[in-house]
Structure formats: structure tokens, C-alpha cells
């Protein structure tokens, strides 16, 4: 926790709001569990099943930049359709900053993780290959359309799309309660790389900024040896913690994601 606070202070010092090139206004945060902060409990009671954490990257950035008004619409489990139906209503003429992380659930995150944890190497390959193809085709098209619509609804806003990290480290390090073969780990990484490529392609087509999250987590994924170096949760036998499997830990959300957001905003 001390390390989290120390690097969060670095984030705070790095980019004062008046130096970002952004006009203070509404900051609308959209997206799924990687945006809401799943993996960094406790969650705000008022957020219910959306599982919003005070250590999510939107809330961390907003605490530092108090001249922006955060409208946190993020929700665990959200898909593109959910963003359209339940989150985009917060956008408007006063919106000057939008962040979004979405697409992993559309790409079958839960099914792929379950298959790779419980199935054979061949089962995992089939699931991740299908997801990788979807990410580069249908998902990229759907995300490009979503980002374009966000720009239309918030014409004065800068839109930043934060991607997903690779979830697991290669090698044979422990993943917690369940092991993953080297072949499965390669397939999970293969899918993560295609997901990142699909999101980046969509962002480019829509004219919004993509923030790469694979490199910042490199060497700190789940199943890293030693485990103390992990910034992403491995597999827990505790059923109450299953929701956080392969999600960033508090450090990953409040420091790594928040720092990358601040660093990208400083370029605007």
C-alpha cells in the first residue's frame, strides 16, 4: 500500500489539470470491470453489481484533478451494448474528457478464461483463436462505430481508449489455485494481442486516442514468479474472489492505469 501511495503521488505531480490542454468540465468514464476497478476492493456500496472501486483509474485521476466533475458510468460486466444503453446518456456538450475500456466481454472474456482454466490445451486454443478472430473483425467494427458515436455525443471532448494488459505471464510460475500449461498461457497472450490490435484499429478509424496497456504490465502479469511481483490477480480458491481473477490488483488500477492515463493526457 505504501508503494501505491508513493506512485500515486507521482501521478499527481506529473500532470496538473491546467497543463493538460483540456478545458475543465465533465469527465465521463465509460466501460467495464477494468474501468470500474474490479480487483481493488472494497467496492462502493452505491455502485451495486457494477463494483466501482475508489481506486479505479477514473476515480484516481478525478481525485487529482478536482476541477473536473467525474461522471462514473463504468460497470463490471459491461459490453458495447451496455455502454450504448446505460452509460452514454452522461455525455453532452459539457463533456471535455471521456475515457473508456470495453470490448473484453464482447470478446468472450469469461468464457475464454473458464475454458482455459478448466479445459484441455486444445479447448483453450479453440476458444482463444475464435476470440482473436472476432477481435480483429466484428469487434473492431463495433468499437469503431461506438467511438464515433461517443465523439458525436460529446463534440468538445477528448476521447481516450485504454486497452487491456496481457493477463498471464509465460513460463511455469504459480497461478494460484489452478495451474496453466505453457501452451494455454501462449494462447491467452495470443488473444490479448489480437484484442489490443482490434481496439487500436477501431480507435484509429474513429479518430480517438488508444492507450496501450500491455507494455506497462509486462513482467507483472498473473502467474509471474515471484508472485509478489504480480499486478494482476491469479486464481483464488475463495469463491468470493472469483470476480477478480485476471483483473488488475489495486496497484494495477490506481497506479499503472492511472499513470498511463495521466501520461497520455499530458500529450494533448
From TrEMBL:
Pfam families: Lipase_GDSL_2 (PF13472). The active site is at residues 33, 247. InterPro entries: SEST-like, SGNH_hydro, SGNH_hydro_sf. Residues 29-254 form the SGNH hydrolase-type esterase domain. GO terms for biological process: triglyceride catabolic process. GO terms for molecular function: triacylglycerol lipase activity. It comes from the Bacteria. The keyword Phosphoprotein does not apply. Disulfide bonds join 50-75, 116-124, 175-223. The keyword Disulfide bond applies. Residues 1-19 form the signal peptide. Keywords: Disulfide bond, Signal. This is Lysophospholipase L1-like esterase. It comes from Catenuloplanes niger.
Amino acid at each position: 500500500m505504501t508503494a501505491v501511495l508513493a506512485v500515486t503521488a507521482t501521478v499527481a505531480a506529473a500532470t496538473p489539470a491546467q497543463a493538460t490542454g483540456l478545458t475543465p468540465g465533465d469527465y465521463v468514464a465509460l466501460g467495464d470491470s477494468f474501468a470500474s476497478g474490479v480487483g481493488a476492493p472494497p467496492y462502493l456500496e452505491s455502485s451495486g453489481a457494477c463494483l466501482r472501486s475508489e481506486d479505479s483509474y477514473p476515480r484516481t485521476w478525478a481525485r487529482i484533478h478536482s476541477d473536473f466533475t467525474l461522471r462514473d458510468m463504468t460497470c463490471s460486466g459491461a459490453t458495447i451494448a451496455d455502454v450504448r444503453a446505460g452509460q452514454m446518456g452522461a455525455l453532452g456538450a459539457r463533456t471535455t474528457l471521456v475515457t473508456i475500456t470495453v470490448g473484453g466481454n464482447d470478446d468472450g472474456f469469461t468464457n475464454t478464461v473458464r475454458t482455459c482454466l478448466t479445459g484441455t490445451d486444445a479447448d483453450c486454443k479453440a476458444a482463444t483463436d475464435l476470440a482473436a478472430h472476432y477481435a480483429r473483425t466484428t469487434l473492431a467494427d463495433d468499437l469503431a462505430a461506438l467511438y464515433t458515436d461517443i465523439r458525436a455525443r460529446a463534440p468538445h471532448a477528448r476521447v481516450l481508449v485504454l486497452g487491456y494488459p496481457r493477463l498471464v505471464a509465460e513460463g511455469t510460475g504459480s497461478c494460484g489455485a489452478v495451474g496453466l500449461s505453457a501452451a494455454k498461457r501462449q494462447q491467452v497472450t495470443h488473444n490479448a494481442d489480437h484484442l489490443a490490435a482490434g481496439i487500436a484499429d477501431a480507435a484509429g478509424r474513429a479518430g480517438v486516442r488508444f492507450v496501450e496497456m500491455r507494455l506497462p504490465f509486462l513482467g507483472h502479469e498473473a502467474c509471474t514468479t515471484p508472485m509478489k511481483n504480480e499486478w494482476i490477480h491469479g486464481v483464488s480458491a475463495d469463491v468470493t474472489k472469483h470476480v477478480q481473477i485476471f483483473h488488475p490488483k489495486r496497484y494495477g488500477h490506481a497506479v499503472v492505469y492511472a499513470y498511463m492515463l495521466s501520461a497520455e493526457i499530458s500529450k494533448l
